[in-house]
Amino acid sequence: MVFYSELNASPGEVLKHMGYPEGKTAPTKIMDRLMGHLDKAGLHFKPVVYFDEFSIESDPVAADNDALGKGLTFQSKFVCDALKNCSAAILGVATIEKSTESARSTQPTVSDQLILESIENAALETLAADFWNHLAAESRASKATGLTRLYLPGEKDWPISDQKPLFSMLTAREPALSVKLNESFMMDPEKSLSFVIGRTKDGTFSEVHHDCALCQLESCSLRKKPQPPAQHRLVVHDISGSHEFYVKDGQNLLSAVLDQGYKVEGACGGNKTCGKCRAKIEKGSSPEPTSEEEVLRQSQNMDLEERLLCFIDVDRDLEITLTNQHLKPQIMVEGFNVETGEIDPWVMETIINVAPAEIKDQSGLLKEMLTLVPGADSISLNALTKASTLVSGKDQQLVATTLDHKIVGIRSSESPASKTCGAAIDIGTTTLAAYLHHYASDEILATESALNPQFVRGKDVMTRIHYVSTNVSGARELSALLVQEINRLLSGLAHKAGIDTTDILHVVATGNTTMLHLLLGVNCALMGVSPFVPVFTEPLTLPAVELGLNLHVDGLLTVLPSKAAFVGADLLSAAFAAGVHRQTKDQVQLLIDIGTNGEIVLAGKGRMLCCATAAGPAFEGGSISCGMGGVDGAIDKVNFSWPHRFTTLGGSAAKGICGSGLIDLCAELLRYGKLSQQGRLLERDENDRFFLDKDSGVFISQKDIREVQLAKGAIHAAVELLMGQLGIGPEEIDQVLLAGGFGSFLNLESAEEIKLLPAGLMVKAQIIGNAAGMGAVAALRSKGVLREINEIKARMEYVELSGSAEFQTAFIMKLGF
Fold it and tell me: In this predicted structure, which of 120-129, 349-358, 790-799 has the lowest mean pLDDT?
């Protein structure tokens, strides 16, 4: 008997046989070829099944039995058991007659041959399913018997050699059978399969027509065992060189690159909105850009060769060059000297005289040392074992080092002078600043800075909070990134000062509340939804080794206190450094730390008000089409009266624009009548862009202007709201202190032009550098500073803006220039 079928191979089935994951599509050019070949496939394919039915006269039990009563035996207990409850067996061979092998061999490209072979595979698989469904429909209609699934020689322990008696039996009944079996038991045409189906006596039907999981024929695309996910070779070129690794099939390219430790900018955290994760595809064709990616590429004025990593899923070998990587950033670490007031040092060194041991005194060395060292209440195991090797039993002089009243070091008084240091770390959303403080000399020996590596998961705190809330291990991942970078900073500090990282005893960290949570790996998801509750705001001191920080084995990490979810330790430590808590009642002082999150303190009339407003990442280059951090090539100053209209950091060719340059550009556009006070670009191209430098492609778009308006409007409105709460006007503010990286490089005249602050305040402004970092250094020197910062926290009155109708009204009113 013969069963004929039409070609029913779907594009999805063909793609599966080409190796594409389920639900994934091929590049447009490949899909066009595939559909073209499918349209013509009927000219090459003739799907057909040759089969016949044999009654089972006795239960098949062993290889020497006539299982079908016709001298046909199976060399497998597996298939005999499968047919035990069957009244008949259907033997068959499915094939693709008029095979396309000749057509494949004449195709001009390898991809065409692959497409045609995959069409054959899909057609054969569909043919087998159609035949089984045809038999099942007949059986259900007659209600006489059911059907087993297809059993294929070669699966489980059924030897492929059993195809020989199967073919012999079929040929006797069906002489038209065109498929040939060679001595190696391989079929010709190649795209063929033999099978047995049993008719069940009890009328049950198998749930599947075939079980590929049991098949042993790994060479057959239809009968292979489940394989581990395919892997593809990925070669990445960046500023550090070239690196090769393998990634899983279907993995997002941005995720794959980030998993290997590359620091690829992604202001949106991989949500396909910022257009920053750029790369050139050097080798290996990638899928054609989607319409969504194409719109984003055009809005960002990207090179034709550049693609966005977040839009590409890896389905083949690729070689890429990362094109949007940043070199060493310009980060503000300097600040003014801060008086610490009460000195209660964390670290002390005490010279002790150890008397000779006496036989009558058996109390031991530990008791004697705790008695000799003022304030010491315990000793570390490391210090105790060191002391045991130094004590000679005679009169001698030792030096004990204590950290927060615990003896952590013992050395001979004759050894070289102490190198004991501490480090202060200011953890900003965008940047990190580190300071190495030498306890003996009370001096800062070295500074280091870096970009916060968490930027790969988003430029602003809300994007990172969202990442943590949607990824189970997100907090641990971001903590690991940060700790790794802090360890690199500590190593750099130690190298500059000529010490070892084991000489660093104490690290004090400041930063916004989100960053401190993510430093410790604490899930901060609740800070992303109302009522925006942090897990902790108290100061914490814990063993540094618990976090994996590379310093002294007994070293400590102290995290400074925060006020609220979005008023962090950075504002409290900056307030201490600026001395706002020491102002007299008749003085009014405004402190603003402008960054990704704008934090503000207004102190006067015996009160201290604080708030936070979501300025967004615009002031630090995020969410801006050509925005970038303060690195070489960033446009940092703009003046249309200059011959070249702008300057860049490092004096190199323009690559983008940083926050200070962005404010300058907006101010110049206003001055020259190219930007309206409502924020409309009056001089622009057809895509609503004003090009500052066409040679480098640096521009500002209408969308970028809106981002600046949102950021500056939030700062301006927040200051006005605090003034209203205190019952004062701008003329009553005596001093305006601008802190943080962005504020430190800000052109005050440009800030006045765009109305960043209420009228009259910019003339009172003083740039104080990294006040948060200086506050952290002060806290590193003395526990008394930590107590003062806690007092500032207690005095501060937090003003919540998120639900304030007054703030929303002011915000809308202050969007204009």
Answer: 349-358
